[in-house]
Amino acid sequence: MNDLTTLLERSHITRPRHQTPAEFSDSLSFLPNEAYHTIRRLTQIFYSIRFGRQELPVEEQKDLESTVQNLEPILQNQLAL
User: Fold this and answer.
1) 47, 22 in Cβ contact below 8 A?
2) Which of 36, 50, 45, 33 is nearest to 8 (CA)?
3) In terms of Cα–Cα distance, which of 34, 38, 25, 28 is closest to 65?
4) What is the dihedral of CA 42, 35, 71, 17, to 10 degrees?
5) Contact indicator for 4, 64 with CB cutoff of 8 Å
6) Is 25 exposed, middle or buried (0-12, 13-18, 19+ CB in 10 A)?
7) DSSP string covering 46-80, please?
């Protein structure tokens, strides 16, 4: 989740302290659909790990890191508009 937060901050998108991660991800509906739905999915995974005490296998961790990296060009294109 830190990688995602850092990526969003580089795109000048920050979570206000009063919002939960879920509320914040809901508020990003202005992003392209692919980015918005990916961020929502990542947030749900974060919740299941953080509060559901689920373990994330190393392979899935790598997949999630790759997913976050794939968001970068989408967010950069959004800023260029």
Assistant:
1) yes
2) 36
3) 38
4) -60
5) no
6) buried
7) HHHHHTT-----HHHHHHHHHHHHHHHHHHHHHHH
User: H helices then E strands: how many in the chain?
Assistant: 4, 0
Residue bearing tokens 């000048």: 12
CB atoms within 10 A of CB 47: 15
Global confidence as pTM:
0.85
The single-letter code of the amino acid at 53 is: R
Query: How many Å apart are CA 81 and CA 11, to the nearest integer?
Result: 13
Separation between Cα atoms, residue 29 and residue 36, nearest integer Å: 6
Contact 4, 68 (CB under 8 A): yes
List, for residues 10-61, the tens digit of each pLDDT value: 989 999 999 999 999 999 999 999 999 999 999 999 999 888 888 888 899 8
